[in-house]
Amino acid sequence: MEKEPKIVAFLCNWCSYAGADLAGVSRLQYPPNVRVIRVPCSGRINPLFIINALRNGADAVLTSGCHPGDCHYATGNLVARRKFALLKNLMDYIGVEDERVSFSWVSASEGTRFAEVINKVTERAKKVGPNNGLFNKESGCGGCNQ
Amino acid sequence: MSANKVGAVLVVGGGIAGIQATLDLVESGYYVYLVEQSSTIGGNMSKLDKAFPTDNSSMSILAPKLVEFGSISSIQYFTNTQISEVAGEAGDFKVKLSQTPNTADTKVCTNYVTPVELPNAGQDISGDDNGKSGDFEVNVGAVILCPGGETFEADQIEYLGYNKYPNVVTSIEFERILRTSDKQSVIRPSDNKKVNKIAWIQCVGSRNIRDEKHYCSCVCCMYAIKEAVCAKQYSDDEVDTSIFYMDMRTYGKDFEKYYEEARDDHGVNFIRSRIYAIEETKDGSNNLLIRYGDDKGEIHHEEFDMVVLSVGFKPSDSAVQLGNNLGIKLNDFNFAETTPFTSVNTSKPGIYVAGIFGGPKDIPETVIEASAAAGASEELLSDVRGTMIQEKTYPPEKDVSGEEPRIGVFVCNCGNNIGGVVNVPKVVESAKALPYVVYSQEFLYTCSQDSQEIIKQKIEEHSLNRIIIASCSPRKLKYYFQETIREAGLNRYLFEMVNIRDQCSFVHMNEPEKATEKAKDLVKLSVNKAGNIESLNEAPVNINPKALVIGGGVSGMTNALNLAKQGYQAHIVEKSDRLGGNARRISTDFNNQDVQSYLNQLVDEVNSNTNIQVTTQASVSKVDGYVGNFVTTLSNNEKIEHGVITIAIGGHEYKPNEYLYNEHNAVLTQLELEEEITANNTRVKNAKNIVLIQCVGSREPDRRYCSRICCNKSVKMALQLQEMNPDANIYILYRDMRTYGFNEENYRKARKQGVIFIRYEVDNKPQVQTDGKDLKVTAVDHILGENITIDADIVGLAAAILPPEDGIKLNQIFNLSLSDEGFYRECPFRGSWGFSHKEMRPVDFASEGIFVAGLAQGPKSIDESIAQAKATASREATILNKNSAKSSGIIAVVQREKCAACYTCARLCPFNAPRIINYAAEIEPILCQGCGICAAECPNKAIILQNYSDVIFTNMVDELYREVH
């Protein structure tokens, strides 16, 4: 049997976590592969959390906050976005597949969108296959062809 | 007024107004009964997709407010309940309520738009009393009416085709289409096909003489623009959107920019027109053909996929009946009438109105009125504040520091909601095997009262020092369970909640095994976290019960007086030599009420109130401290210690460069003309031709805002001038007449009485010329398309309202946020991660304890300034009524030895909480909102967000993947 991906998701308390709650209240069905960790704000997320999850073998990591302009703390998601843009570059550089690290904005009223995001993230994780360890890939460093 | 006042208030209506009024009142020490006639709270706002002009999601503003409801013990709320009878007088009302039995299943709220469930009858959760049914009585000191409004029944106007053609929908129905859209396309009802061309029809049931809805509904222009932009944004394909309108009334703060951006950046079409008919096309496509006349009178036909009717507001039948039952005065359109210069007082003392029942308005104005009504009630009931509220006592807190974690895990079946999918016994079993877990059990309903007793008992029995509840969303019941563990002597932060329902059983209904695995993992994560969390202290801060009010105009005085009557001290600092501000120059308001006699009375009251101190000819030169403990130094070196600050420094009138102002002495600004009217000046009285020109300095590239009140004011002055000299010809040259709300009545009256309205285009403005003696005004008549020239005796210019002159200077002291134009920018949407009530705050700033009222925040009328000043007082009272306040426990703390004083945290914090003191950052606990931005950004990781530290999160993930390795 194909091994199911196990995905960790950091959701901000005010928008994305609430969007996930709404998906539940609306009984939208989505794949059961995601383990949610609630954070106060996407601005709280240290890029280390994402790298640590990948290092531990997470098949994918999702980070989701309020839409730009919607942040409960005014600017937390913008601060987050800045960091994530940088992290995305780093991931690319060290050869982590694009499919493993996702970012999204989901508001408290977007239950449908939350379910879609989870569908997509799970699909992408399945497509890229299991994470066999971030720093011991068989093919060496994917970013620099060595 | 009754001698035996009651320290409780009845709030009627559970929409955003009712919620805001309730939260303000309970925070200020009053008991609240909230009555809602439907089965859920949330009101109209919960039906919206986004809220203009910020385009924030409506639910993300509303939901946190709803969550708070379940957590406050001094609210009792009754759904499905109506008022049947009111007896008594201000201060002591006896109100009979009748509740219909609740047939709806409120246990699980399947309502799409209300993600927050309300605790219901069977569960006996604090504050709720829905178990009652039948008639009962409550005793209150004041009543606040916020029953909201309904939208106009569009099928009453037959030619619009509503209820006849499936693709003609109302705006509120369109909100639902937007809310449920997949954000890739907008779907129309008839055939679920993507739409590519949508029309909005404005003023459906507003400004409508035939249906006796003469008033303007205020919000439809803005929501139509919002919906048109959303429709474009939610569609992958190009969508053509057109708004058919009479006047674009984007008069509110930042609304004009919103309009311009929709038109110029998003490409929304705006068509000034009159609609003749909407019919389906004959080809069976269910498309719609709009027949309309443009402003030259030419007739056009255009086909659309879908038509949205921008329906106006009206009071609901039940609200009208309620008003009649209470014996309050309703206006011609059945909205509640307010008494002059109070903005929230009904004709009956002790009964206040807020929100749409007092007249159509948008969400921020509704919230302002709700706070203002709370402020007015607090003024009435100040001597019985706190008498109905019992301070809850808790057993002494156990010191668990240094103890090894002893974790108790309680897993909920939620009836069948969780247990029907997730194998709960297995989850319990796996929890027992986890490190530090000493006890675990399942409950049918963890939230029932019995379960609370058992949890407390188990805490005792097994010396548990960390509690985990695996049930529904922490957003809903966290506070409730935290109360339980506090009652068992545990610090409330020694608590974690796992969501195995909304985010597990509900969404994996067909995969019970995988859902069980997920539930086990989620519990495992939580247990790991619980091992690392600690008791947190909530830092106490003393509150100085005094307000500093900067600015002695109507706003400042109203604010100070309301606070003074509530028993707090207020100190007004006024820059000029006397109180009164801009209102000194105004004769009457838009309802023809005498402003000067009101103002004199207000000044007398302020001067004679012993709680108010006034310093004139002084300004603020320095402010130190923070909420509760500010120390302000004035320009005369006087030092004032106070707890909160009201900024009410007003605004001023633009001195035009255009239209020969300053060059010809018969060209006057609005205020100057008003002064001449008041003085009954002969040149005004004998003038034959008077021309009033609108939008002078407003809605211009360097001032992209509408000054809001000038249309109303010009219309009022036109009527005044006509009264002075019935033979005078009065012309108003305008771009859009923005006589919003009930001001539309004056506009109608002016037209009827022969005031001539000529519209001009912004690129073809009127010309004012002089030969040195006489004035000639030339404009293009928008109907004839030809130039007309008026020999004007007087030209009145509706000059823009400018931001306060001292705004920028003062702001160097406060460091608050100013809009591009220089008005103070309120901070409507934010809140605390911890336990406090800080949502949706249109008079608050991001900096705690500082508030704004009046023109300093944006152009507004006297009544609107009064409402805002009272709202500000109400918000301030929520702070001032406490001797001491507590910070949240979830705050960021700095490890001094790691801090390099790099200022990263100080720059990024939205709340100005970190300061650098002695070469290291310090975070002021009371200001910290617990977002953790600083903790994530700190380059040296010197900052820790308590109970949300880096170590906690990395450990959780390590634990989650332990088996994978």
Q: How would you describe this structure to a colleague?
A:
The complex is a heterodimer of chains A (146) and B (965). Chain A has 146 residues and is of the alpha/beta class. Chain A has one domain: Rossmann fold (3-Layer(aba) Sandwich). Chain A has a four-stranded parallel beta sheet with strand order 2-1-3-4, with helices on both faces. Chain A is globular. In chain B, helix 7 crosses helix 20, helix 13 packs across helix 14 and helix 13 runs parallel beside helix 20. About 4% of the residues of chain B have low confidence. In chain B, strands 11-17-12-13-14-15-16 form a seven-stranded mixed beta sheet. Chain B has a five-stranded parallel beta sheet with strand order 5-2-1-9-19, with helices on one face. Chain B has a five-stranded parallel beta sheet with strand order 27-26-25-31-42. Chain B contains 23 helices and 47 strands. Chain B has six domains: 212 residues, FAD/NAD(P)-binding domain; 163 residues, FAD/NAD(P)-binding domain, CATH 3.50.50; 123 residues, 3-Layer(aba) Sandwich (Rossmann fold), CATH 3.40.50; 194 residues, 3-Layer(bba) Sandwich (FAD/NAD(P)-binding domain), CATH 3.50.50; 149 residues, 3-Layer(bba) Sandwich (FAD/NAD(P)-binding domain), CATH 3.50.50.60; 69 residues, Alpha-Beta Plaits, CATH 3.30.70. The interface between A and B is large, with 59 and 74 residues.
Produce a short descriptive summary.
Chain A has 146 residues and is of the alpha/beta class. Chain A contains 4 helices and 4 strands. Chain A is globular, with a radius of gyration of 15 Å.
Order of helices and strands of chain A: EHEHEHEH
Biggest sheet character of chain B:
7 strands, mixed
* Beta-strand content bin of chain A: 15-25%
Mean pLDDT of chain A: 87
Helix content of chain B: 25-40%
CATH-assigned homologous superfamily of the largest domain in chain B: FAD/NAD(P)-binding domain
Please, how many domains of chain A?
1
Overall geometry of chain B = globular
Physical arrangement of strands within the biggest beta sheet of chain B: 11-17-12-13-14-15-16
* Share in helix of chain A: 25-40%
Main interface by residue count: A-B, 59 and 74 residues
